[in-house]
Amino acid sequence: MKLFVYVNLYLLMVILPSSAFVLDEVFKEKLNNINASVYPNSACLNDLNTMIRAIGTADGIWALKILDSSSKIQSGIAILNEDIGQFDECIQAENKDASISGKYCLGYINPVTPNTELHQIRTDKVRLMQNVMALTGSKISSSFANQKFTWAGCLPKSCSINDFSYFYNNILQRFISGIEIDFSEQLCATKYDESSLSIGAILTIVFFCIMIGIMIIETFYDLYCQKFGIEPSIFLTAFSMYTNSQKLFKISKSNDQLQFLNGLKFFSMIWVVLGHTYSEAIQAPLSNVLDVLTWSNQLYSMLLVSGLMAVDTFFVVGGCLVAYVYMLAIEKGGNINIFIYYLHRFIRLTPPLGALILVVANITPYLGNGPRWTLIRTYQSFCQENWWSTLLYIQNYVSIPKVCAGHCWYLAIDMQLYILSPFIMYSMKRYTKLSFVCLGAVISIITGVNFYVAWIKKYGALVSNIYIDSTDYQSNFYLKTHVRAGPWLFGILAGYIIFEMKQKRLKFRPHKVLNIIAWLCSLVLLLFCIFIGHDFLRRPEYSEWGNSLHIAFIRNIWSIAICWIMVSCALGYGGPINWFLSLPIYQVLNRFTYSIYLVHLVLIDMWYSSTKTPIHFSDLMMGYYFWGHFCFTFIISYFWVLLFESPFIILEKIILGALLKLRRQKADT
After folding, report:
1. Helices and strands in the chain, H and E counts
2. 370: in domain
3. Do 298 and 415 reside in the same domain of the chain?
4. 184 with 255, same domain?
5. How many whole angstroms separate alpha carbon 107 and alpha carbon 164?
6. What are phi and psi of 548, to 5 degrees?
7. Nearest CA to 156 among 90, 89, 97?
8. 176 and 260 in a common domain
9. Does 210 fall in a domain?
10. What is the CB neighbour count within 10 angstroms for residue 59?
């Protein structure tokens, strides 16, 4: 392997002193060589001169803090310990009259290597990893390593990005050539950032205070009625914590329920949160990047890489429930009112989502700070600009790449497919055989188109493959409804079959041996989908056939396996798996799944963005982080459900019930 300039940087770091006084001498030298009359930023230059003169004086501790908080040569270079400086020390550094204070900027080290192929220079950290691993004799892997090596700088707040680039790149050039530090204003911070609440933040806080106040008042009203045996008003207890908590933790039983779906959905959500815990941690600065590569060489790491399949499980389950509930309503003699059908879904999803958008767009930037906190401000700007597309559930087509609450792309696809569901279900009820043929044809067309697009665009099947730029794949392919509809359509078919079998109109009684074989095949297919890409889909050599076939068929294979699990469990052939997935506890936990899905990634991003020291990566630490993230998310989701889910479900029933009653009265007259 060709050793890039980063090897020289590695060797340099082993012998280079790391004292802030070395930077002091370099700054003095650079300042002496600058012609103040022609330097574009005289304010920065003057503050730097003042800072240098203050070092060593009785009142110069603030100046030393500015130099000391910048990145220097740290221990742990051999395992790629990243340095992000001292954020708090930098922004808190200030002279006596507060005329000069620290400005922290996080930069990325880039190699200057022209005429090199794109896939060789796409990620500089990987190249550094590869060089160090070559020196240490470690096995090279490419998974989960698409971040660049970081360098933190601290200068007076009067200095611009150009000043940061000038001084720190000149410092590096003094010792080594072939690299440069790329600073961005988006990754800079001072202690004066976001010092006062915006109008939007104030209004959002007022809104939440009103909602919480209503919940508290109605809870006391409910408790008062319970104590004195008074029949409470349903409307005045819609926000009651007491009544709604009872409903949330109540176990109900009905022959029409598909209890196993509760466990299936809950564990899929666990998988999603666990996957985001790992993926977000790996994107943060790490103290042992080399260990990430060792981890990614392990076969079991695919359990996290393949966590994307959990989303397809939700699509399958969603399609199954749509078909099953629709057919159940028709069977009971009900007529489907399309307007109410759509309105119910919109009311079910939108209040919790709208509340999340309010928080992201107005509140989150004030909840912390840190080296990467500007990412939170970036997400804020996305929501301020494109909140409407998320609330209309079209963000997967119109707001890319600036998607508000980006992880909610799933809701857009789910809503768009839900809008189509009455037409699909009507045709299935009336033209069953033809509908099965048509849905099979649609799934085949989707599969073929996905294969063709992946082949032409040379998409990588695994987002974790850093040798392939996945930006276009995620923006223009992965998030599209016409690409992801296959699993949902499989779920529609499974839901219809389950309903017909439970109604005894479609008979299927597999022999015990056949049932065991089918279960084994399903489990093998699931394991196949998880582990198939471990080796050949992560290589630098692109495989058209491998990647295109994986993209086209892997979700179909996964969906078929999940469909068998659902059908078998629904008909009582699931054995211990059905028993486990149908445990009553999952009925309770599943009621929090939607809110967990909404808030978990926002909380994880806030935690990692506020982290001011490199994270140590290990499965044990990720396990602790996961349970911390999940438990905190669950607590927040509990109140999210009480504020924005349960009350609006009750209000919907009250309002729709009144409208239907009024319609019947008009019909009678």
Report:
1. 28, 3
2. yes
3. yes
4. no
5. 9
6. -70, -45
7. 90
8. no
9. no
10. 9
Q: Is 195 inside a domain boundary?
A: no
- As a dihedral over the C-alpha atoms of residue 165, residue 167, residue 171, residue 174, rounded to 10 degrees, the angle is 100
For residues 436 and 424, give the distance between their C-alpha atoms in angstroms, rounded to a whole number: 10
- Does residue 234 lie in a domain region? no
pLDDT mean by block of 10 residues, the chain; 669 residues: 39 41 59 59 86 83 89 72 89 90 90 47 46 46 52 91 87 71 89 85 97 97 93 92 95 87 97 94 85 84 90 97 93 82 94 98 93 90 95 92 92 96 92 93 96 92 70 86 95 95 82 91 96 76 87 96 96 93 96 97 94 91 95 97 96 85 72
Query: What's the burial of 30, exposed, middle or buried (CB within 10 Å: 0-12/13-18/19+)?
Result: middle
Paired with 205 in beta bridges are none
Q: Which helix (H) or strand (E) holds 276?
A: helix 260-283
Domain match, 263 and 182 both: no
Residues 6+ apart with CB under 8 A from 271: 307, 310
Task: Give Cβ neighbours of residue 132 (< 8 Å, ≥ 6 apart).
Answer: 6, 7, 10, 78, 80, 290
For the chain, the domain total comes to: 2
Interior/surface letters 215-249, b for 16+ CB within 10 angstroms, e for the rest: beebbebbbebeeeeeebeeeebbbbbbbbeeebe
* Long-range own/partner contacts, residues 227-230 (CB < 8 A, 24 or more apart): none
- The length of the chain in residues reads 669
pTM strictly above 0.90 = no
Pair (416, 505) in one structural domain: yes
Furthest-apart CA atoms within the chain: distance in Å: 95
Residue type present at position 324: Y
**Residue where a domain terminates, one of 189, 217, 235:** 189
Residue type, 389: S
Distance CA 547, CA 554 (A): 10
Return the sign of the alpha-carbon dihedral for residues 224, 229, 233, 239.
positive
Q: From 145, 170, 189, give the residue that closes a domain.
A: 189
**261 and 165 share one domain:** no
Q: Both 269 and 144 in a single domain?
A: no
Q: Which helix (H) or strand (E) holds 562?
A: helix 544-570
Question: What does the alpha-carbon distance between residue 185 and residue 125 come to, in Å, rounded to a whole number?
Answer: 21
The domain in which residue 59 lies consists of: 5-189
Rounded distance between C-alpha atoms, residue 386 and residue 399, angstroms: 7
Sheet holding 179-189, edge to edge: 149-156, 102-111, 179-189
First to last CA, the chain: 87
How many angstroms separate the CA atoms of 23 and 181, rounded? 16
